[in-house]
Amino acid sequence: MAENYREVFATHPRDAKNYDTQRLRDEFLVETVMNEDRLFWNYSHYDRLMVGGVVPVNKEIVLEAIEPLKSENFLDRRELGVVNVGSKGVVLVDGTAYELDYKEAIYVGMGCKEIIFKSCDSANPAHFYMNSAPAHIAYPTVKVSREDAIVIELGEAESSNRRTLNKLIVNDTIQTNQLQMGMTELHPGSVWNTMPAHTHSRRMEAYFYFEVPQGHSICHLMGEPQETRHVWMQNEQAIFSPTWSIHSAAGTSNYTFIWGMGGENLAYGDMDVIATPDLR
């Protein structure tokens, strides 16, 4: 069993109101997602969603079960979504090789035994970002290229939130149990994502920010709509958003983020929108 994990425990919103900056960061932020030659997981008690990443440089990385799963193989009772945010890499699933280029994804179904991650060029390695959720049905493993994604143009430049939404691992493209993943790209001059803000008590969400230019940062907004908080984030960092929390952000530049969700509803549009003037 690999010991490369930490547990992220669920928090009541009444408790979160009293958190200072450091406590917010300790409870929700994943400061280091990408580790060279080491796959590290953040095992959340919010819908048991897991967030992890790895940069294979000097060796291939084998996906191993972690102790909280109490299973022989990582995917004995789970499903996995992977998005490559680095140079070209390969994911081997029970001997079948799937090549992932920049911003391509793969869904790996429950029951797969041997999962291996490797870079095509160690000098320019892949950066594999991963989400995993519990599963009860074994669905097929599917690669999702940029051409396979459902692409939606959203927002307006005048409100600084012109963005391109790419649905990658969603029920409109492939079969999953509960895992949903996609990628939103902010256009130059736009900084706001997911605005107006919303919540969805049927599922939780995690955000992973990348393509944040050097010297720039993301101000991620969370908390109840009437009790909002913020966390400053950097490139290739992630954050957990509980079911009771909004999840939105503004950057000091445009950027890209990957959203991943777990819960009981697979409908992407199932959300409770919060009117911007109602935020506190």
Automatic annotation (TrEMBL):
Keywords: Isomerase. This is 5-dehydro-4-deoxy-D-glucuronate isomerase. Its EC number is 5.3.1.17. The gene is kduI. It comes from the Bacteria. The keyword Isomerase applies.
